[in-house]
Amino acid sequence: MAAAATCIAVVAVAMAVLAPGARGLDRRADFPPGFLFGAATSSYQVEGAYLDDNKSLSNWDVYTHTHPGKIKDGRNADVADDHYHRYMDDVELVRDLGVNSYRFSISWARIVPRGRLGEVNSAGIAFYSRLIDALLQKDIQPFVTLNHFDMPHELETRYGGWLGAGIREEFEYYTDVCFKAFGDRVRFWTTFNEPNLLVKFQFMLGKHPPNRCSPPFGHCNRGDSRREPYVAAHNVLLSHAAAVRNYRTNYQVTRDG
Question: Which positions make up the signal peptide (predicted)?
Answer without folding.
Answer: 1-24
